[in-house]
Amino acid sequence: MMKEKAKKYLSVAIDWLLYLSVAFLCVSAVWLLSQVFLFSSFSVPTDSMTPAIVPGDCVLVNKVLRGGRIFNLNDAFDHKPLEITRLRGTGKFRRNEVLVFNFPYPERWDSIGFDVMRYYVKRCIALPGDTVEIRNAHYRVRGYRGELGNIDSQNSLARYMHSERNREEMIKGGSFKAYPLDSVTGWTVQEFGPLYLPARGDTVRLDRHHYAVYRNLIEWEQRKKLTAHNGCFYLDGSEINHYVFTHDYYFMGGDNCYNSQDSRYWGLLPEEYIVGKATCIWTSKNRVTDEICWDRVLKKIK
């Protein structure tokens, strides 16, 4: 009699363990799929987006807007050439939206790379097809009359750079000269552009200026070396005089203009590198006391 009861209890226990295991696997699968296709959470370690986002904030990222990305994780971790496919989304990215993306220059400044574990959060200043420029430290997009980025920070930077001494300090610190750090353009964070942001299908004529600003993009798209010699341009040894882009590109800027490693310094961002739109701060911790900052919890990102 006791053996029969023991067998019955054991059978029930096994059934419950199987049920809980299946339930756990289902929940895990749903969570994983949600992380890949719907949303993700990212912790912000720097002050480059202050005051909108501060160190210790955890932001929720909407992937549905432009569609989740699918790529080979093994290739990403091995730093192999990566094919990124984006699913169909519900809309498009807009100027002034805060986006999370894989930093495109994780290893070297002269070629675009991909680090699956290195993410940046910045504000979208310009879209594919825009012409962006910086005048007196303020962002401008031709044909667009709205404000772009953190105007208070841009005003402050403009006032700061009115002093010759301050400009010299920025030059010494390596934060004054801007992309592509070439004498052909001579661009700075005070005066930059105009720079056209290629959209898929756009054609540009190659000259010294376009070679300087688009070389990294062309080499990334073609996975071939672009060189210049005696006024001529060669892609993997074959001479070309124009180029048709196959990807869309964005210009990203941090709200903290004094301390932000953004497109002013490293150039344009391929759309495939964008994870999604940062929508809200779902939680936040004081990095000194480790206490929850309740005034920032569930705060919408504007």
From TrEMBL:
Main location (coarse class): membrane
Compartments (UniProt record): Membrane
Domain called Peptidase S26: residue spans: 22-282
CDD domains the UniProt entry points to: S26_SPase_I
Highest taxon listed in the record's lineage: Bacteria
MF term (GO), any: serine-type endopeptidase activity
Catalysed conversion reaction: Cleavage of hydrophobic, N-terminal signal or leader sequences from secreted and periplasmic proteins
Cellular component aspect of the GO annotation: membrane
GO terms, biological process: signal peptide processing
Active site: S48, K122
Keyword list, A-Z: Hydrolase, Membrane, Protease, Transmembrane, Transmembrane helix
Enzyme class: hydrolase
A Pfam family matched in the record: Peptidase_S26
Enzyme Commission number(s): 3.4.21.89
UniProt cross-references to PROSITE patterns, sorted A to Z: SPASE_I_3 (PS00761)
Membrane disposition: Single-pass type II membrane protein
Membrane-spanning segments: 12-33
Similarity annotation: Belongs to the peptidase S26 family.
PANTHER family: CHLOROPLAST PROCESSING PEPTIDASE, SIGNAL PEPTIDASE I
Protein name (database record): Signal peptidase I
